[in-house]
What we know:
The chain has 263 residues and is α+β, with helices and mostly antiparallel strands. The protein is 19% helix and 37% strand. The protein is built from six helices and 15 strands. The model has no long low-confidence stretch (mean pLDDT 90).
Amino acid sequence: VRCIIRKEQDEISAHSRAGNEFETLQKVLDDVAKIPGDFVLDGELCLMDENGNEDFQDVMSEIRRKNHTIKNPKFVIFDYLTLEEFDTRVGTAKLEERYMNIQGCDLESTHTLSLLEQHPIDSETTFNNMMEEAKRLGHEGIMIRKNTGYKGKRSKDILKVKEMHDAEYTVLDFESGFVRYILDGSEVEEKMLSNIIIEHKGNKVGVGSGFSIDQRKQFHKDPSGIVNKLVTVQYFEESQNKAGEYSLRFPVLKHIYEGERNC
């Protein structure tokens, strides 16, 4: 879970990117209090099981529990910002410099804080080796960060690179909802197709990405253009919940076939 921790004098708090406060991280906040100075830490909150492995499902259920303190959290830090950089959403210190500032913090004396290893990519060979290593370890992919100043907004300075898979499905049904989009420079909201429904290993899966606004409008008015059609869906990986039901992570519509596929 992405987490922002702010330390300003004696005030320390943890929030989501949307600004919602996390009240279950007292052990992490106590360790952050040991680091001198005022700053903002940006990172990922993980929950470790008894064997030291990351438990994604449980951290999602525990992070927002009332009157609860997570027993075994791990906060993995990947950026260190001044209060001014964070508040103004702009900074001049390059990523490499900010990373050196994190390395200057004494994290070894804490139980919940660790530093994310980051390595420069100096060639295509280095990039390919990193992708192969991520694949071997079963990771989602790698994050590439530009060595530039902080920007407190979405930008192309941070890119996610992951290997994707394709599969073909028959569209069983569709769902419509209100979708916001920009029309003539203004944001408008209109009811149109929001998802198509496919079946993966006996379970219904919604696919809501990969459509243009025109397609969403068209299929909402005339579902025959998409329902019962053969489509190619691109996805990152197959997932399975605790009930053993299969689904797809990050499914995106790639192609709609008219009639039988001939190749």
